[in-house]
Prior knowledge:
The complex is a heterotrimer of chains A (about 270), B (about 220) and C (about 220).
Chain A: H1 2-17, H2 19-33, H3 35-39, E1 45-50, H4 51-68, E2 72-77, H5 79-87, E3 94-96, H6 100-108, E4 118-123, E5 125-130, H7 138-143, E6 149-152, H8 158-169, H9 173-176, E7 180-183, H10 186-194, E8 200-204, H11 205-208, E9 213-219, E10 229-235, H12 241-252, H13 254-262
Parallel strand pairs in A: 1-2, 1-3, 6-7, 6-8
Antiparallel strand pairs in A: 3-10, 4-10, 5-8, 5-9
Helix pairs in contact in A: 1-2, 4-13, 5-6
Chain B: H1 3-36, H2 42-54, H3 57-67, H4 73-80, H5 89-113, H6 117-125, H7 130-141, H8 143-159, H9 162-168, H10 178-187, H11 191-219
Helix pairs in contact in B: 1-5, 1-8, 2-5, 3-5, 3-9, 5-8, 5-9, 6-7, 8-11, 10-11
Chain C: E1 4-12, E2 15-23, E3 27-31, H1 38-46, E4 53-58, E5 61-65, E6 70-71, E7 79-82, H2 94-98, H3 108-114, H4 130-142, E8 148-152, H5 160-177, E9 181-185, H6 188-192, E10 197-200, E11 212-218
Parallel strand pairs in C: 3-9, 3-10, 7-8, 8-9
Antiparallel strand pairs in C: 1-2, 1-4, 2-11, 4-5, 5-6
Amino acid sequence: MAVVASTRFRAKRVLRMTKLQQLLAVGITVATAFSTPVAAQPPGLVASVATSVYDALDEIAALYRATTGVTVALNAGGSNTLARQIVEGAKAGLFISADEIQMDAVEKAGRIVPGTRLRLLTNELAVVVPQSTQQFTLAQLLDGRIARLAMGEPGAVPAGVYGRRWLEHEGAWRRVESKVIPFPTVRAVLSAVEAGRVDAGIVYRTDATTSAVRVVGTMSRKDHPYLDIAYPAAVIVGPSEQEAKRFLEFLKGPAARAVFDRRGFGRPDER
Amino acid sequence: MSAETWAIARFTVLMALLATTLVLPPAIAVGWLLARKTFPGKTLLETIVSLPLVLPPVATGLLLLWLFGRRSPVGQALDAIGIDVIFTWKAVVLSMMVISFPLVARSVRAGIEQVDRRYEHIAATLGAGSFRILRTITLPLASRGIAAGAVLGFSRALGEFGATIMVAGAIPGRTRTLAVGIYTLVETGREDAAWSLLIVSALLAFGAIFVSNRLIAEGRP
Amino acid sequence: MIDLSIDITMRQGEFVLTVRDRASVEVLGVLGPSGSGKTSLLESIAGIRTPDEGEIRIGDRVLFSSAGNIDLPARDRRIGYVPQDALLFPNMNVRANINFGRHAEGDFESLVKILDLQDLLERRVTNLSGGEKQRVAIARALMTRPSILLLDEPLAGVDRERRDVILPYILRIRKELHVPLIYVTHDEAEINSIADRVLRLGSALSREGLPAAASADWR
Lengths: 271, 221, 219
């Protein structure tokens, strides 16, 4: 009994004292053994796309792979983050932004292949409320008769910028400003509305259809031309220019267009 | 658990292991310096080492993005020799390393400070040089603190998100770690898929805590 | 035989230690109550601590000189130091501790024999008795063939009955190995049984009547 105890004690002690070496050995061995599949990056196109178009792009990329065999890796994120990455030299081939401001920044930094920038899609704002809300009208919101309004950060997130522009145009911003709860992403806005933590939220029309919320109003392009929510796309200077151009052509094509239409995005020529 | 979940988990663990392994030598060096030496600028070094702890990870990510981007001398030099960092697994490892460095260095420092300096003095009277004392006396006696620091750094690296997503992106198959994957899936409305990643993350966290507790317990008499 | 010349002043807070002595003996005793600076004195001879001013010489070798800006690092002094609590390295066994020294060229077998360490060699150091630890620490220091061996209260960690067991070992070192010793204690009887000359801290007296000045004062 004593022998067993002392053996176990010594084994534990050995374990503890060589823990450092063990960790090092494990780390180096495993990392080296598996470094090949990791280090050999699959050659292909990386497209940085705004979160609100990610779903659509995912579907289209699958179609693209089926027809051409080329895999497009989608890097989704907030447009400002994506733009910052590209400005600092991230090797994305294509950039689809949720507003012109971010694309302007990328263009100003000289990162766009000239002549490739275009309006790919348009979108519309929608006001949504929790599904349990019985009565709510846009007039209520514009009068400021609301406790909490969820929006993207009105200074930074594109959806928030547009939201504020709309409210300002309606003369309601001053009334509503103090009720605004800013969120870093549209997804966060939708979650807040779904959970009933706010009375209403301003999102994209395309987002509203995929969530458990009720739409009380949509700001159509026809009635609100000043909003002009457009998704610019552009090829980024770098090693994947050719592939990016091909993919961009596909995005303009009928197969991709069908996907965009079905998901509620507007066509670029609509003004 | 789907094949994709498994691949993301494996990738994350590998990157965290690599990051921890690479961060240990500099963290031990800095931890030792702070524990044993006084020199002009020591407070400055302490501050710089603590920065990734104090700054929001996104800010750290921005700094890394700038540092390895095309507008910085470091980024340009790397580009000249054909090394890409941004949007690659290297960026994942780098952000994990930078974020976990203060935790590991502080644990090392605490571990070394607990080693009675008189052992080192005696070793000196026996003729041992500084490096030998470090290697045979100080570090072995501080090994529990160092190991605890390594586990802590590893756990932090596993869950690292803010800096990673900034400098590595969220590219599936290339830079999507568990944390980044959960965020991206939730952001794009695919919460169901995020759940399996969440469960794996939780299991790994439990594992790390378990190992860490074993280390602490082994030290008790 | 030591030929030690020491003339130093050390300040720590309000405590000032001044030692001035010249000794050519085999065993130099340092006597003083606890807190009188005995350990600080040993540490400054060993090179672990730096006096504020003064000079320490062994024969012609200058170990420390504030005027001449000399401070030989401990690892180059070839002075063996056995501290009060042995300070055996806990991460090594007895054998590894003894062999740790850089110039561990001493006669391992004979040291082990003189200090009766044969049965302890493979043991971990953490569960040795106080007396056993002292003997191992002495062997460890002697393995480097030091020119002097410093013993800081070697019998302090040992209970009364065992003291008579340990002391003979120390006498054996003196007799068989001829290593000069500096022996520090607060026990007068102990020091009288072993030292050729006694440096008293806390008073200016010297046993031999040879010129010596040592004072430890609280200012």
